[in-house]
Amino acid sequence: xxxxxxxxEHPADDELVRRCFAALLEQDVQGxxxxxxxxxxxxxxxxxxxxxxxxxxxxxxxxTYLAEAFRxxxxxxxxxxxxxLLDRSLLLANDATANPYSFILVSxxxxxxxxxxxxxxxxxxxRYIILxxxxx
Length: 136
Known about the structure:
By secondary structure, this protein is of the alpha+beta class. 22% of the residues lie in helices and 32% in strands.
């Protein structure tokens, strides 16, 4: 089942994604598959489907799937830890609102803030361009 999506500030190679998710979830690296399409998924405990974007910031989307029996850790705490492990900021969906253009920006240090992204850039070009920080 899908655990969460993260849009990375800068692209990460497959091995970095594998090592960071293994550390995050306290798994052996062999238990983490990194694939480039859902059609390539197997039955690994953790699967990261990497959707390559452009060379622009926030263009690489990583969708993480956990096996059914796997306990799902808190997404925000895990996102904060993942940003630290990857040494780059990332965007997470803001599930506290129905606004599809509101995201949680997780800094490299794990700090969280709510931001809005450009609707046209996202809808037309799959680009996450941060427009502004939202008021709490």
